[in-house]
Amino acid sequence: MAKVLVVDDSNSIRDMVSFTLKGAGYQTVEAVNGQEGLSKAQAGGFDLVISDVNMPIMDGITLCQELRKLPSFKFTPILMLTTESSTDMKMKGKAAGATGWLVKPFNPDKLLSTIKRVIR
Amino acid sequence: MSVDLSQFIPTFLEESFEGLEIMESGLLNLEAGDSEMINAIFRAAHSIKGGAGTFGFGHVTEFTHLVETLLDEMRDGRREINSQEKEVLLASVDCIRLMIEAIQNESEYDDTSIIMVSAQLSELLANGNEPADGNSVISDVNGSSESDDPISSNKTKWNILFIPEHHLVQTGNDPLLLFSALEDFGELTATAVLDNLPSIIEMDVEELYMHWQLTLISDNATEEDIREVFEWVEDECELTISKEELEQPKHEKSGSAEANEQSDDTVPSPEQLLPNDNVQLAQTNSAAGVTNADSQASNVTTISPNTDDNNSPKAPKTPTKSKAKTDQGSIRVGVDKVDSLINLVGELVITQSMLSELGNDFDLSKVEKLTAGLEQLLQNTKELQESVMRIRMLPISFAFNRFPRLIHDLSMKTGKDIELIINGENTELDKTVMEQIGDPLVHLVRNAVDHGIEPVEKRLASGKSEKGTIWLNAYHQGGSIVIEIRDDGGGINRDAVFNKAVEKGLVEPNVTLTDSQVFELIFEPGFSTAKELSDISGRGVGMDVVKRNIQSLGGRIQIESTPGEGSTFKVHLPLTLAILDGQLVRVGEEVFVVPLITIVESLQAKPELINKVSGDMVLYRLREDNVPVIPIFQLFNLPAESQAVDNSLLVVVEADGQKVGLMVDDLLAQQQVVIKSLKDNYQDVAGVSGATILGDGSVAMILDVPGIIQMALEIAQHKQRQRSNVYQLEGALN
Fold first, then answer.
1. What distance in Å separates the CA atoms of residue B108 and residue B116, rounded to the nearest whole number?
2. How near does any CA of chain B get to the CA of A5, in Å?
3. I want to staple B619 with a disulfide (CB 3.0 to 4.6 A). Which of A58, B527, B611, B716 is the partner?
4. B698 with B584: CB under 8 angstroms?
């Protein structure tokens, strides 16, 4: 069962993502900001990270940079959840090592079809 | 896929309200250059926008987008933060709150203010250093990609040349998965070109050395669809897409010349290779380069277009959790509270097992153990009860949070410069009490601003600082919580209050009253000392309501005031409404609970102190007061042991400043009782505020003391009227 780290400070979005993923047979670990995400990531064994960009304490871009420094996250897909459809934010994410992005608003179908591009 | 999004809406609403509070308090405290604060405000707006879009509230997204854009410009330093913008942003917070509340209540809302504020926002944005960002138009809520010409019966063959950069896999992208996404559009053949593989010694396992020639036969895919699949990697690859109609077997060479050359030279027809070199998608790990490079038997790898269904995520189960309407309300509970609860339940289980072991072979020698066990059970139950009650307790900051904004708005309106100091915002209070005390507190604070704090000239004239101060303090005292609203204004003018009360006919001009009795007059219905009407605290309408609301929560309000120095309104409230300290009394066969807080004293009536006045009203002389006696048996029509007042037991209770003696047959124990609502389980009953279940399993009614006093007075008046009617009738007959 694929294990997904879901990082978002918004409870509703995090619940929705996590619920959808669990329903689709994934295992999820949740974190409310980049720092918590990073510390939970230490456990390893993740197949995918889905993270919000704008978060208190540590944002998604920094989380992404930090994760890429960990050997076990070198190739792990990292998707940024963002409402900023501007190319600027996407490029920042890419530069930080993100695999791709999912532009909010999205629905569960879109979420599942999107993650199929990076995880099997 | 049917995930019911509505189940997440309550959480969304809750966090939106929290976000709005963050925005509001942030804006109130915002000073230029405070980038952390502006970031927090931005984040809150951003989250609301994102959530609203996701859960299908486009109108909220649209509006919040404007707010967010403005905040973004401030955040980036492209825009100065001035008071005009702050005001518009504060108004926007109100608008968003209005919309979110409408969603919560599933009601309509008046959108005039929203149209107005969004016009103001647009204007600000238009006048800014940068025009509103055209790129960030809100995208379709549905999120599905719309194809340009969805119905096209002709199958199209797409030739795609995909040359990724060597480091592609290091961002977590896996070409094979991109291909499988392409398969959703139709039949895909992928041919890997391994020409550029370095020798095994030079090879870096983390790099990707090959590229692919793909053909997609689809009847609905557009070039945009295909580009979207490669969206994440477009900067890390060379991508050439060309189209050819299937009817024409000879393809035009519209693709890259290099690509065609390569595929012509090195790639045999894919069909030939299928049986041997078919690489199952599922078997490849994310470092695609490594796996494929290993299969060097052939320099070409073909990927089967059929995705193995077992390897794709399983169809989602239908959600088992179906949450009903949104108005249930929820409490956020600290983990420490839950932990302590679990801990206590653990102890309870130990006690239970100890007792049941004791019961297995019980004899009299073990009585002592049994007593000890029961003692422990009592202790556990008590702690468990306290612990559960604590879960309902929230810090009073939930009620206090709205005041900084209120003071800000009132300052603007009145032109008074006012500072608000909040103390004890972590004092905990029952959620229900908290919800009901909000409005009375707002009223008291408005009063403090309007009537308490003097205008600036007057303050300066009396040697005070220009800035008025209002304190909101909360602290625990005994079993209750005290909330203080204090101002350093002019204090209550005793004479003005007294004269006004006389004028209104509330009090006789010649009586002498103590200060606190005079201040009490403020709570009389229809009382006001304000010379002019103001839209802030109105006309004194409400102070009586404030008092009534506080009393209905089982609390009381007290005023202290010193002329020239200011006033303090102290609100005393019970910590919880769920449990009550009660005195059990017996009337005939029935047991009633009298709230301990209302009891002044209990006594045995001495015959010489009893006065029978006109009609059935009996007065008892209690020191200086004449206290009306209310026989409970009469009120509820019960058979009682003693029907005469002489030597009977009187429980003297007080409510609304009125003392009465409740006549009962016996005083029983004092104990805490858990209040059960009669309204929920049966219906409202006059004179009874609720019921409880006693230790022996029987039900006892909890007396509503203010209600009983009211009832007794009405009955007395009614009888008097009847009697005067009889006199009139007799007079007429004679």
1. 18
2. 14
3. B611
4. no
Residues A48, A102: Cα–Cα separation, whole Å: 13
Residue B734: what pLDDT? 55
| Min distance B126 CA to chain A CA atoms (Å) | 19
In DSSP notation, B286-342 reads S-HHHHHHH-TTSSEEEE-S---GGGSPPPPPPPS-----GGG------HHHHHHHH
The pLDDT-based confidence of B172 (bands split at 50, 70, 90) is: confident
Least confident of B188-192, B266-270, B435-439: B266-270
- Rounded Cα distance, B360 and A100, in Å: 66
Give the predicted TM-score (pTM) of the model: 0.52
Contact A116 B313 (CB under 8 A): yes
CA dihedral A92, A95, A97, A99 (to 10 degrees): 70
- pLDDT tens digits, one per residue of B438-469: 888 988 998 898 888 998 888 989 888 889 99
Closest Cα partner for A46 from A21, A20, A23? Answer: A21
Which B positions 232-251 lie with beta carbon below 8 A of chain A?
A: 232, 235
Span B92-104, average pLDDT:
91
Q: Chain A contact for B576, CB < 8 A?
A: no
3-state secondary structure (DSSP) of residue B244 = strand
Do the Cβ atoms of A110 and B144 come within 8 Å? yes
Hey, of B7, B9, B47, B178, which one would you mutate to test binding to chain A, going by the most A CBs within 10 A of its CB? B47
Residue of B nearest to A108 (CA): B3
- The answer, for B134 touching chain A at a CB cutoff of 8 Å, is no
Nearest neighbour of B47 by CB, restricted to A10, A23, A108: A10
In the predicted model, is pLDDT for residue B262 greater than 90? no
Residue B146's pLDDT band (boundaries 50, 70, 90)?
A: very low
Q: Tell which B residues from 434 to 473 touch A, by Cβ distance under 8 Å.
A: none
Length of chain A in terms of residues written: 120
What is the token pair recorded at A91?
A: 């490029």
Residues ≥6 apart with Cβ < 8 Å to B258: none
| Arithmetic mean of pLDDT over chain B | 77
Chain pair A-B, CB pairs under 8 angstroms? 157
Q: Nearest CA of chain A to the CA of B47: how many Å?
A: 7
Q: What is the pLDDT of residues B352-410, one digit of tens each?
A: 888 888 888 888 888 888 898 898 898 888 888 878 877 888 888 888 888 888 888 88
Q: For residue B52, what is the nearest residue in chain A, using CA coordinates?
A: A105
pLDDT at B700: 92
CB atoms < 10 A from the CB of B299, how many?
15
